[in-house]
């Protein structure tokens, strides 16, 4: 999302090189041909800490898959457990059905983006935005093990609002059956980050246009109790913390 | 992004039925097989006013395309001009190259999502989020006509910050050549919207868990002038308006 030419390019391992598993705590995801950007490669990051922090700050991803040869991108809730993402949906939804049994899995791309600021430059060309994004490529599979499914749904709820899963009625057998969860291992993963002010051309600096950054962030408002709330229930601490 | 079963389903026209053009002011995009959701169809909307309002409120979309048979989803800046989206990138970026000459175009799916609130239900199952999203299916083409390209880039800048394109140095020939713009006509388009509180089961309403909505919205902070700002330039009104 900018015009800055690439300055350096990470080494791409030969095809077939495997990304590390979560065991043994390797600190970086191994770049692959499709996780090294064609441009602005200096903005790419592969370390787990950075990737996980970006993933943990959000809860809506954009799930991409191919249907009848054409791309489909749908907003979807997710949660992270270690080196695995869980994505949420109904058993009737198209991507989740496609990821079902028989289980070759579904090729997906999951992208999470946080916008941090509008970058205003003296020139139209150097306008940009500050952002942090993570792109995950891989094969998603339906979660069928009941224990993993329950844990995944708890993780999904807690990812949106930490502590909430313990403060709600757990899903019953019928609800669990009606909910589909797919998992996607974090193996082929990259983050991309732009920070800082505009990169104006030196000859433009004297132009009379305001240049700088307008920060932006999601802000939570005052909780609105449900009409059906019944007896007054105090706002839980995890809500106020948001 | 919820569990509510479908209540009604829009009529799907027979294949080959064409979506209306922007001339003659038809008020609705014609639903197609892939713009009618498999679930929560009561949340779908096709009227231009709703779709355009959602598109105009954002400036980052998630652009999906297929590369080597696999889906790719990238955050991308966009602007809208009438019934057309313009997407921005570098001439070196993969999707823009793929959408270039010779020009069969590139099958894309462009999705814009606004999160409006976290919906907390008594049961884990009925947790949801309030959101407004637009999904556009179609074929993207590179913009090559210099006049259309210039207008598209102005629209992109003004989409992020209305009024800004007139208050920055326009792109020169070299910059225009280094920027690729793709266009995507709004023909196969749908919006999906969830609003309101949780849809709890009647038998759960007495449970002691807080239920309701935690609103969320992007909020703009105090503008940060660039270090290279030079002489003090007052904040423009379009910036303060954000």
From TrEMBL, chains A, B:
<feature type="region of interest" description="Disordered">
    <location>
        <begin position="1"/>
        <end position="43"/>
    </location>
</feature>
<protein>
    <submittedName>
        <fullName>Pyridoxamine 5'-phosphate oxidase family protein</fullName>
    </submittedName>
</protein>
<dbReference type="Pfam" id="PF12900">
    <property type="entry name" value="Pyridox_ox_2"/>
</dbReference>
<feature type="compositionally biased region" description="Basic residues">
    <location>
        <begin position="1"/>
        <end position="10"/>
    </location>
</feature>
<dbReference type="InterPro" id="IPR024747">
    <property type="entry name" value="Pyridox_Oxase-rel"/>
</dbReference>
<dbReference type="InterPro" id="IPR012349">
    <property type="entry name" value="Split_barrel_FMN-bd"/>
</dbReference>
